[in-house]
Amino acid sequence: MKTQSDEQEEKRARLDLENQSALLGEDFNQDSGELAQIIEKAKGKDIIFFDGVCGLCDRFVQFVLEHDDGHFYFASLQSPLAKYVLARHGVDTKVLSSVYLVRDALGPKERRYKRSEAALRIMGDCRGASSLLKGFLVIPPFLRDPGYNLVAAVRYRLFGKRDACRIPAPQERDRFLDL
Question: CB–CB of 101/61 below 8 Å?
Fold first, then answer.
C-alpha cells in the first residue's frame, strides 16, 4: 500500500521527468510512468553507460558482470535512461565515443566519469588482477585519453557492430536498468 509520501515522491519524479523531457526536446518513446519507474530504480546506483551495439563494449560489460560482485548496474547509451541521466552533465548521447560511469546516479553525490577514467575506475572495482589498473589513474587524462580515443575510433572495425543491444541472461536482467 502506497503512503502519501510515496505518492508525492512519484509525482515529483514524474514532474522531473516531464521537465527533463521538455528540456531535451525529445520524445523518449517510452511511457513516462515506465521511465519514471526506471529512474526511481536507478537512484543511488553506480551505473555504467555503454554503447549497446558495440562488440568491444559488450565484451567489457560481460567482463564486469563476471568480476564485480553485483556492484555495478548497466544501461546502453541508446536508452532513455542514458539520455535522462547524462543530459544532466551536458552529454549528447548521440555521440557514442565513450563509456560513462555515473556514481550515485540521481543522488546527492552524483559524479560522472568518462573515457579512460571511467574504464579504469570500473576495472579498479572489479575482482582480480584487473583491479590493479586503477593505479593508472595517477597518469593525467590528457596522456591516457588519446589511447582510449584511438581504440574508440576503430572499435567497430576491430570488434564489430551489432544491429541491436544484446539481451542479458535471466540472472543478469535486474542489473540492466534500461530493460
Answer: no
Backbone angles phi, psi at 40, to 5 degrees: -65, -40
Cell of 81: 535512461
List the end-to-end C-alpha distance of the chain, in Å, as a whole number. Answer: 25
Cα separation, 23 vs 88, in Å, equals 10
- The model's pTM is 0.81
Can you give the length of the chain in residues? 179
Cα(58)–Cα(50) distance, integer angstroms:
8
Domain map of the chain by residue range?
43-175
| C-alpha span between 4 and 39 (Å, rounded) | 20
Q: Give the model confidence (pLDDT) of 73-125 as tens digits.
A: 999 999 999 999 999 999 988 888 899 999 999 999 999 999 999 999 999 99
What residues are paired with 103 via a beta bridge?
Answer: 111
Return phi, psi of residue 47, to 5°: -115, 135
Which amino acid is it at 116?
S
Instruction: Return the SS3 of 157.
Output: helix
> What are the pLDDT digits (tens) for 42-62?
999 999 999 988 989 999 999
Amino acid 163 reads D
